[in-house]
Structure formats: structure tokens, C-alpha cells
Amino acid sequence: MDFNFTPEEEAFRARVRAFLEANLPKGWDGLASDLPQELTGKRFLIEWHRKLYAHGFVGMSWPREYGGQGATLVQQAILNEELARYRAPAPLGGIGLALAGPTIIVHGTEAQKERYLHKILAGEEIWCQLFSEPNAGSDLAALRTRAELRGDEFVVNGQKIWTSGARSAHFGILLARTDPDAPKHKGISYFIVDMKSPGITIKPLRQITGESHFNEVFMDDLRVPRENLVGKLNAGWQVANTTLANERGTGALALLVRFGTQLQEVVDLARSVRRNGRPAVEDPLVRQRLAQFYIDLQELKYNVYRGFSAIIKGGSPGPEGSIQKLVWSELSQRMQEFALELQGPGAQLAFREPRAAVRGYHQRMFLRSRADTIYAGTSEIQRNIVAQRVLGLPRTH
Predict the structure, then answer these.
(1) Nearest of 280, 295, 289 to residue 357 by alpha carbon
(2) Burial level of 239, CB count in 10 A (0-12/13-18/19+)?
(3) How many independent structural domains does the chain possess?
(4) Other beta carbons less than 10 A from residue 38's beta carbon
(5) Is residue 2 part of a domain?
(6) Among residues 247, 299, 341, 353, which one is catalytic?
(7) Are the C-beta atoms of 305 and 344 separated by less than 8 Å?
């Protein structure tokens, strides 16, 4: 890798900074727990997405013919770094931008590209991911949802679980079994599903944080037009691998925004709480922990850069993305555990409790981080992928 940025790339960084300084609200610091409702609500986020889109900062690396900017992944990384630096909100519809859209670009028909890609970029249609099932999470190929072809439609029956944002999604990317007699990695197909279709029932799942971002989705005689099949019939596992590679690999570019912000929030907390009569950040042991988090974040960043450097040279997202997923998910949990440690007994105060540090923001994030090592493939699965497909180690039984 070349770690130096070209003059053109530095000019792009300056353009991003100028945009952020001109368009973020005055006094913006990005801490959601301290922001008024008008700066965290849906209307603000929609308007923010529109500004990003109008200035060419959404789907930058998508091909120009599909509404992107045809930008390099280095420019995408610079954008993410600057969004993190300013703690600016990310674009809306991360699943559409990072997973569904790139998969449709690779495997979709021209009609599918024409119908869906522009609206993903514009933030007009939000997507969800209908992959996991009650008995097919880490072992995704064990899914049982069935799709039977009847004339020009597939009739789908089954259940999905842990579906993020299902209640607000317009469309979903669905994996369903279309050949029950084939080996489990065969006979699976990949579909685009209208989430407002008859036959879909969505039930929210109450999470440990008290929120209901995850959902169960039941499909009872759901009818999906044949033109919504992505890729070839019974070849959905290959299409899904494109989605999962983007989720674990190039999708990690967006996570650099999240973790750059998260580290700064932990540093700010260390400055605000006291230990032994002085700000905790003055304690050398605290500073050592914070320095290690910074080192870990740089490790993540350069692993992400290494991955998309290979893509720039003509490759595609591969199993190396599992290294990134393993690193960021466990780093997230360590940072939030430390944030509670810094608060001492005050860590027992609940989210939004006025007496809690940052109104209990880190308590909520600690609980939320428990999911990081589960979704997008558990840490156990990621270690198997790294061992077998990156290091070439033999399977053990």
C-alpha cells in the first residue's frame, strides 16, 4: 500500500471539510445524547442525506451509469474519515447502500438496476436484510423458508428473525430455498421483496436496550414476481456471498465513521469523569487504555485499506473481510466496557438518567454492543473463515 495521498485526494478532503463546515448545524458536536430532537429526528436525517446526495457524497464508488460518482475507494475512505472527524451523521439506508445496491450492481438485471439503484442513492427507499432464521443464523445455509415457482410468481412461506429496520423498510433482500432436494448450499435463491406486500407480518423484538430495532418477519403465501429474482434460480448462495463480503469487507469503510466517533466519545468521557480527585484522563493507566484503543482503530483502518487496495487492483471483496469484522466487533465491546469502568458506581445509572454521565449514553451503547459479535456472522464463524479461507488451515471435525 501507498500511505500517501495524492494532491487530488487532498483537494477532495478539503472539499469534504468545506461542505461539512458549511452544512452542519452551528455548534454541532454529534453526541446524540446531548442533541435536541430537531437535530436527531427523521426530518433532519432526511434533509442531511439529501445534502450529501446533492453534493455527490452518497454511493461515491458506485459506477456513474448507476448514479454513483465513479470515485475511488480512497476517496470513499477520505469521506468516511472526515464524517468521523466532524461526528456527522452517515447517509440513510446503510443496508441499501452497502449491501443491496452493490449486490444488484453485480448480479441484477438491467431492469432491476434501473428500478432500484437511483432510489437507494437518493434515500427514497430503505432496505432490510431477510437472511437469518430461528434455526439458521450462523449456519445460514440451513435456512428453511421456501419459495415455490407458480407461473410468473414465487410463493414464499417461512420466517426470518433479527431483521433490522423491517418496519420502516420499503424493500428487503431475501434468501429462500427453491430446491428442497439439493444440498443445503445449493437450491437457494435470492429475491427482492416489497415489504408492504400482502402476506408479510412484522413483529418487533424487544432488545436489552428497551428498543425494538430488530424484528421477526413472517411470510405466509407471500407472492414475489419472478422478475424480482436476483441472479440465477438456485444460485442464490453465490449472490449472497457478494452481499456478505460487502457487509464484512467494504462495508467496514462506513464503520470507520462509527468507531472514530466512538473513540472520541470515550476520550471525552475520560475528560469529564473524575478518578482520585482529578480528571480520569490524567491517570496514566487510563491514558494507556485509550492509546491502545487508538492503536486498535488504526489496525482496523489499515486492514480495511489493505482490503480495498486489493479491490482497486482488480480484485473483489473476499474472506479477508472476516478479519475486519472480528476486529471491529470485539473492539466495540472493549471500548464500551471501558466506558462503564470509567464511571465506577455511576455505571449502574440507566440510559437518560439525568445524574448519569452523558445521561447514560454509554450504558445504552454497552448493551447495544453485545450484538456486535453476533450479527453479520458470529466471532466463532469469522475465526473459522479466517482459519480455513485466509490461512488455508484444514477443517477439523
Answers:
(1) 280
(2) buried
(3) 3
(4) 9
(5) no
(6) 247
(7) no
Residue 370 placed within a domain: yes
Given a contact cutoff of 8 angstroms between Cβ atoms, the answer to whether 132 and 162 are in contact is yes
- 61-112 residue pLDDT tens: 889 999 999 888 778 878 887 887 888 888 889 899 989 999 999 999 999 9
- Which spans in 181-283 are helix H? 236-245, 252-272
Low-confidence stretches of the chain (pLDDT < 70) are 1-3, 29-41, 246-255, 257, 308, 311-312, 314-318, 397
Region of 314 on the Ramachandran plot (φ > 0 left; ψ -120 to 50 alpha; else beta): left
Query: What pLDDT score does 317 carry?
Result: 61
Instruction: Determine the structural domain holding residue 77 and report its residue range.
Output: 7-90
Task: Round the average pLDDT of the chain to a whole number and report it.
Answer: 88
299-327 per-position pLDDT tens digit: 888 887 777 677 667 666 667 778 888 88
- Per the document, the length of the chain is 397
Annotated catalytic, 247? yes
**Is residue 395 domain-resident?**
no
Helix, strand or coil, per DSSP, at residue 230: strand
CB 250 within 8 A of CB 73: yes
Evaluate whether 336 touches 362 at the Cβ level (below 8 Å): yes
DSSP string, 241-264: HHHHHIIIIITHHHHHHHHHHHHH
**How many helices (H) and strands (E) in the chain?**
12, 10
How far apart are alpha carbons 97 and 126 in whole angstroms?
A: 9
162 with 226, same domain: the answer is yes
